[in-house]
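Narrative of accomplishments. A recurring question from our advisory board has been how the design workflow behaves on a single, concrete structure rather than in aggregate. To address it, we present the structure tokens for one chain from the evaluation set, followed by the sequence designed for it. No filtering or post-editing was applied between the two.
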């Protein structure tokens, strides 16, 4: 069989191209460090390598999230340390004010202004943002979640537009849900609530109302809405921040309608007073700056109005606590009780035994106020449910008097408490300002707990970052196993291809036929 020159040339060119491609591919593997460029070259290894690459990408993303969280918690901790210092200064200012011995009125106004300034500084701290996120704004990123509003000389701290004293539960404020980021713990979302499982992610938000405190220790009144009859007229007395107003309203077709009628009556009665009592959909009347008390109006015509069931919740505006532990046996003690405008002097002789003195005192009260439910409990608190009562001490013939304490309403929010202390100093109410001191101390202790919690989270962030770095190292090693070129073997193979390629070129003179150009010289 005759083999033509064209057949020989085709075979030669094919082998030469094959060697050239093999040499180039080997050189490319050495230069890139990758054992394959397309998945078709190694399908199984490529599939595994893609999973490793995804894991590496996820780990890098989790690390980036942790870096953001670390900056967030660092800034939050710095802010809380500043707040701790501020509260220490507030406490010292109040102590200095209540112990001032110079020009009392001038000094108290100066101290009040200092407290006002410190309250403004606290609001500024809690409106801090980092990396475009407001730290203490909850799930909202709205600038300045905290604000101080002034109305008739009364200052109210608001959180997202709602007074901090409005709710005892911080979760009732707007934007109170937490914000989480995925850090590789296996993010889980509840199928029913569609909310993130807190144990599967890292929280990167703080509810400002929870951190600073919310609600008041007391000062609310609760109307039993179920006792209000449709179409019936009701008349009650409301004492909001010691301002008494008579409220008249008509029972609605349902509880919501009744609430609307009561709110309208409250708005009308307290118009232009600087006080804005509100009633919730459950019948709780609340005034954000102080105590609220309600009672059935005794002057109302019973033929025109109906009786109302209600409950005063810790209404300290009509409770006084007497200190009977210091009673001296054989000594006579006296004090005044004013009930609904009627003053009576109550006297008793101490036995030196607190329990016996309380019984003797109750008998004296019953004698002075026949038919009225004025009582003293085991804690020494005198009260008259449903009646306006005032207690004041008077000296007896031998100079003895019964110590008593008026119990006030205090905010659970330390910014509001600072403003209230400032107002008390302006009003000359040293007793109230003095009561703020211990509450500021308690707030300082709570902040230390908050700071410790932030420190724990920062430690967890550091641990998680270290864990991800170790994971990245392991994944990189796995990626090298699947994708990286064995340089020693590949260099040897490349040298072999190179030698074969050069040899093939040297044989070209024997394979390629001479042309006329070979003879031209």
């Amino acid at each position: 069989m005759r083999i033509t020159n064209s057949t020989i040339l085709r075979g030669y060119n094919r082998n030469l191209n094959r060697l050239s491609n093999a040499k180039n591919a080997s050189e490319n593997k050495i230069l890139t460090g990758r054992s394959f460029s397309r998945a078709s070259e190694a399908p199984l290894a490529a599939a595994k390598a893609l999973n490793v690459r995804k894991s590496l990408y996820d780990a890098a993303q989790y690390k980036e999230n942790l870096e953001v969280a670390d900056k967030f918690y660092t800034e939050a901790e710095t802010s809380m340390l500043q707040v701790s210092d501020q509260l220490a200064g507030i406490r010292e200012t109040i102590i200095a004010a209540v112990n001032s011995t110079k020009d009392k009125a001038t000094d108290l106004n100066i101290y009040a202004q200092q407290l006002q300034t410190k309250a403004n500084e606290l609001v500024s701290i809690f409106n801090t943002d980092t990396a475009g996120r407001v730290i203490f704004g909850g799930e909202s990123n709205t600038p300045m979640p905290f604000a101080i509003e002034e109305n008739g000389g009364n200052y109210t701290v608001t959180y997202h537009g709602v007074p901090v004293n409005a709710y005892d539960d911080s979760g009732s404020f707007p934007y109170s849900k937490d914000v989480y980021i995925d850090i590789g713990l296996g993010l889980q979302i509840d199928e029913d609530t569609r909310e993130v499982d807190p144990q599967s992610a890292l929280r990167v938000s703080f509810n400002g109302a929870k951190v600073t405190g919310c609600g008041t220790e007391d000062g609310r009144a609760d109307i039993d809405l179920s006792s209000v009859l449709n179409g019936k007229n009701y008349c009650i007395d409301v004492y909001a921040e010691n301002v008494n107003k008579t409220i008249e309203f008509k029972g609605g077709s349902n509880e919501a309608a009744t609430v609307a009628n009561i709110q309208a009556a409250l708005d009308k009665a307290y118009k232009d007073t600087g006080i804005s009592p509100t009633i919730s959909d459950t019948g709780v009347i609340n005034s954000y700056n102080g105590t609220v008390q309600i009672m059935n109006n005794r002057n109302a015509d019973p033929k025109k109005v109906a009786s109302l069931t209600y409950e005063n919740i810790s209404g300290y505006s009509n409770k006084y606590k007497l200190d009977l532990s210091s009673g001296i046996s054989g000594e006579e003690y006296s004090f005044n009780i004013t009930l609904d405008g009627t003053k009576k002097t109550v006297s008793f002789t101490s036995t030196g035994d607190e329990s016996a003195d309380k019984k003797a005192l109750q008998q004296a009260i019953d004698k002075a106020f026949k038919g009225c439910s004025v009582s003293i409990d085991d804690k020494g608190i005198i009260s008259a449910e449903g009646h306006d009562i005032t207690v004041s001490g008077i000296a007896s013939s031998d100079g003895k008097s019964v110590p008593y304490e008026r119990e006030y309403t205090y905010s659970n929010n330390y910014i509001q408490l600072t403003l209230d202390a400032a107002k008390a100093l302006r009003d000359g109410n040293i007793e109230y300002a003095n009561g703020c001191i211990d509450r500021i101390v308690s707030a300082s202790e709570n902040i230390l707990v908050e700071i410790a919690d932030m420190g724990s989270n920062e430690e967890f962030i550091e641990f998680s970052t270290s864990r991800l770095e170790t994971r990245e190292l392991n994944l990189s090693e796995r990626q090298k196993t699947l994708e990286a070129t064995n340089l020693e073997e590949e260099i040897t193979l490349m040298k072999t291809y190179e030698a074969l390629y050069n040899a093939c070129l040297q044989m070209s003179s024997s394979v390629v036929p001479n042309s006329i150009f070979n003879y031209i010289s």
